[in-house]
Inverse folding.
């Protein structure tokens, strides 16, 4: 499990306790992205490995650090989840199972109807990203910005070298993985509202990030010199599959 964390000392205890209860067989690493509230100490006290960044790199930089750690530790797979309590640890086996037929699995909040609520403005922006992704990638994703994801070894190695560093990097990473020819699956998952802490971006700053990521996506698409690799999309249904290999 790779958990990027910035000033999440208040929510980490319950998140880590839930993780240890739901999937005690998996290793956990918390990447402290320049926190000032004792996040690293809390993570250590709850039995997690901790990587401390000397200053705030942003979620993309923190995740790339986590991917490099997973590769160096020779993990076969890893799951990314947030430190704020939104992601349900009981869904993790579902993500890991879907890696049996995919390289990269996205846990979608919107693949089925559930109680997860998103404000109207943000939902419209997300729909615009989904439309743009469909135009640029040739396939439909129901949740382009989900931070609840699983990665097989080839994708871990790829993202350890090239994971985007800016906020809303999850959208860019999804497009990059599609262009690189990785098999991508979505599975429906339940998520909760944020349990505490401070959201990464709000209001006008969030609008800026949506505009930036749209520009980046279309720029990336225009710079492609070769045709897109054969679309090897996998539509995962969440059926139970056999698990194998060591995971983080």
């Amino acid at each position: 499990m790779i958990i990027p964390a910035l000033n999440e000392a208040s929510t980490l205890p319950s998140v880590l306790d839930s993780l240890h209860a739901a999937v005690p067989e998996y290793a956990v690493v918390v990447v402290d992205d320049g926190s000032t509230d004792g996040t690293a100490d809390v993570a250590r006290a709850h039995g997690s490995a901790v990587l401390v960044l000397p200053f705030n790199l942003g979620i993309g930089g923190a995740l790339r650090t986590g991917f490099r750690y997973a590769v160096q530790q020779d993990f076969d797979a890893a799951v990314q989840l947030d430190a704020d309590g939104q992601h349900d640890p009981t869904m993790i086996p579902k993500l890991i199972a879907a890696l049996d037929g995919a390289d990269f699995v996205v846990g979608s909040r919107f693949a089925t109807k559930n109680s997860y609520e998103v404000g109207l403005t943000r939902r419209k922006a997300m729909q615009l990203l989904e439309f743009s992704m469909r135009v640029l990638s040739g396939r439909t994703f129901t949740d382009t910005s989900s931070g609840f994801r699983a990665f097989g070894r080839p994708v871990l190695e790829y993202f350890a070298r090239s994971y985007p560093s800016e906020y809303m990097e999850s959208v860019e990473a999804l497009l990059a993985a599609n262009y690189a020819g990785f098999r991508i699956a979505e599975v429906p998952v339940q998520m909760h509202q944020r349990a505490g802490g401070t959201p990464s971006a709000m209001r006008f700053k969030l609008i800026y990030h949506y505009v930036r990521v749209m520009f980046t996506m279309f720029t990336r698409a225009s710079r492609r010199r070769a045709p897109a690799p054969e679309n090897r999309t996998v539509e995962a249904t969440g059926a139970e599959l056999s698990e194998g290999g060591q995971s983080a």
Summary: The chain has one domain: 2-222. The first strand starts at residue 2 and ends at 5. The chain has a mean pLDDT of 83. DSSP finds eight helices and seven strands in the chain.
